């Protein structure tokens, strides 16, 4: 008999370690087949629109129950922000896609779960432009990865199984067109701890600065990067960094990232991207070789749930493979 879920608690499923290793092996083999040595891109979010300098400033009036880890009233951190398309290939921006926003806060004091080898005290947040994940657990995610890496035949075989149709529907729903990355809301999808074992949260980032740029020129297949360039040439841009508390362990599960939580979001910090010129070869190279992982994290913000547990080993192993193959020390 399954125990009644409690706030903040995890419930690992059988064979997660085996399924995680199969995911890693599948992705690494796919990257070997897809890219030559020295030019291996990420498996997902392969197309980077740009890497920007930013600041992350915590609210001065932060409630006491939220003051854990990096969330200290008035504290400010320098940061890097990477915007991307979610696809495994570098595609035309005019196509519908999931979009990504990866945030790396720098020089965050405290005990880290896993340290970024090049930026040891960095806290990462990985967010996408859709509030839920497509697969509910590691076993289902493994099936999706094998289908995706299996080419057209793998996807057809996957799609013929009615048991996979909900995953396909969620995937299609997440893929949308956009005129600007700065108009999108981003979600963390999976939850994290907040200080105590009973407190779990999800994150979101919401734009708050009205852009002053004209509509983008969509004759350019890289117009999303051009829009970022034009906007950040003209103005600073800000987002609100939000958290969403788990209020009910059944209605807002830890272990199923396909379920959107329905509790309100609370603003806890402001992200400011100052005016800058990021579109140059040096910055692009630096951005391509940065590593992001939800486990680059303070212990107070530990990622939770099966997908997060799988990411712990998968992100580390695949990142090491990619950087070694690209001769990045």
Report mean pLDDT, rounded to a whole number. Answer: 95
The profile of the biggest β sheet is:
9 strands, antiparallel
Overall spatial form: globular
Assign the CATH superfamily.
Catalase core domain
Report the uncertain regions: none
Please report the total strand number as a whole number: 9
**CATH class bucket:** Mainly Beta
What fraction strand?
15-25%
The structure class reads: alpha+beta
Count up the helices: 7
**Alpha carbon gyration radius:** 19 Å
Overall number of structural domains: 1
Tell me the CATH topology: Catalase HpII,  Chain A, domain 1
Distance between the termini: 50 Å
CATH architecture: Beta Barrel
Helix-strand pattern: HEEEEHHHEEEHEEHH
Helical proportion, percent range: 25-40%
């Amino acid at each position: 008999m399954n125990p009644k879920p409690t706030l903040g608690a995890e419930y690992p499923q059988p064979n997660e370690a085996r399924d995680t290793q199969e995911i890693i092996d599948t992705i690494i083999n796919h990257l070997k087949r897809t890219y030559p040595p020295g030019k291996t891109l990420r498996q997902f979010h392969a197309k980077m629109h740009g890497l920007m300098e930013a600041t992350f400033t915590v609210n001065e009036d932060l409630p006491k129950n939220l003051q854990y880890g990096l969330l200290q009233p008035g504290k400010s951190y320098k940061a890097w922000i990477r915007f991307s398309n979610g696809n495994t290939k570098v595609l035309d921006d005019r196509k519908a896609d999931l979009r990504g926003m990866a945030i790396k806060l720098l020089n965050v004091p405290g005990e880290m779960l896993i340290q970024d080898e090049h930026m040891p005290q960095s806290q990462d947040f990985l967010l996408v432009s859709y509030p839920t994940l497509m697969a509910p657990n590691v076993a289902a995610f493994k099936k999706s990865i094998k289908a995706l890496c299996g080419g057209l035949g793998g996807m057809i075989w996957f799609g013929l199984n009615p048991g996979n149709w909900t995953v396909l529907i969620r995937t299609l729903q997440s893929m949308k067109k956009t005129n600007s990355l700065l108009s999108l809301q981003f979600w963390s999808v999976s939850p994290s701890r907040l200080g105590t074992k009973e407190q779990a949260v999800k994150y979101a980032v919401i734009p708050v600065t009205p852009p002053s740029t004209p509509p983008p020129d969509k004759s350019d297949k890289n117009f999303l990067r051009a829009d970022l360039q034009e906007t950040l040439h003209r103005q600073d841009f800000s987002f609100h960094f939000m958290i969403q508390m788990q209020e009910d362990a059944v209605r807002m599960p830890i272990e199923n990232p396909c379920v959107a939580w329905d509790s309100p979001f609370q603003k806890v910090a402001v992200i400011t991207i100052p005016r800058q010129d990021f579109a140059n070869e040096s910055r692009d190279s630096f951005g391509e070789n940065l590593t992001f992982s939800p486990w680059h994290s303070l212990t107070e913000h530990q990622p939770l749930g099966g997908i997060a547990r799988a990411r712990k080993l998968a992100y580390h192993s695949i990142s090491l493979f990619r950087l070694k193959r690209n001769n990045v020390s």
